[in-house]
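Quick check before the chapter quiz. The format below is the same one you will see on the exam, so make sure you can read both the input and the output lines.
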Amino acid sequence: MSSTLQSRRLDTRRLSPCCGLWLVWKAHNKMVFHGLHLSTRDVARLIAEHVELWSFRARSRLDVETF
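Here is the expected output.
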């Protein structure tokens, strides 16, 4: 397994709880402020999608080349 894939897998494990809590909070706000109800399945699907997106984020601002 490549080191990039392995480090991405570790990032995903570390991001999952944070992403899960964030999306549960957002679903709660949608319910309270907009009257929209998301099912558990919808929230779980969103968590999976967001964890994948977050795993491809830039590591830090120091990784970006300055102009």
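If your answer matched, good. The chain is about 70% helix and 0% strand.
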